[in-house]
Amino acid sequence: NDGCDATIHWGYATGDINGNGKIDMSDYVFLKRAYFGTYKFDENKTKRGDINKNGKIDSSDARAILIEAVS
Predict the structure, then answer these.
(1) Residue 71 in contact with residue 15, Cβ under 8 Å?
(2) For 15, left (φ over 0), alpha (ψ -120 to 50), or beta?
(3) 39, 58, 69, 71: which has the fewest Cβ within 10 Å?
(4) Is the pTM of this model over 0.85?
């Protein structure tokens, strides 16, 4: 899965930002919007989008979600 761990944590899956039960392109779009500052994530969405667990949304999180979404 090349870095995207879809582990379930407290009712959400890492990478599943919109909470629809799967990692798809809409999750990638949400994450990119947050990364570029056009969308503000709440705490849950930040936890879901922080794939590499470094405490912030960054380009490596976006890459991991994109890879998972298209695979």
Answers:
(1) no
(2) left
(3) 71
(4) no
**What are the C-alpha distances in Å from 54 to residues 21, 60, 70?**
23, 10, 24
Could you give the C-alpha distances from 15 to 4, 59, in angstroms and in order?
Answer: 7, 13
Q: Is 15 exposed, middle or buried (0-12, 13-18, 19+ CB in 10 A)?
A: buried
Would you write out the chain's pLDDT as a tens digit for each of its 71 residues?
Answer: 445 454 544 567 899 999 898 999 999 999 999 999 999 999 989 999 999 999 999 999 999 999 999 98
DSSP class of residue 21 equals S
Say how far apart CA 33 and CA 70 lie, in whole Å: 18
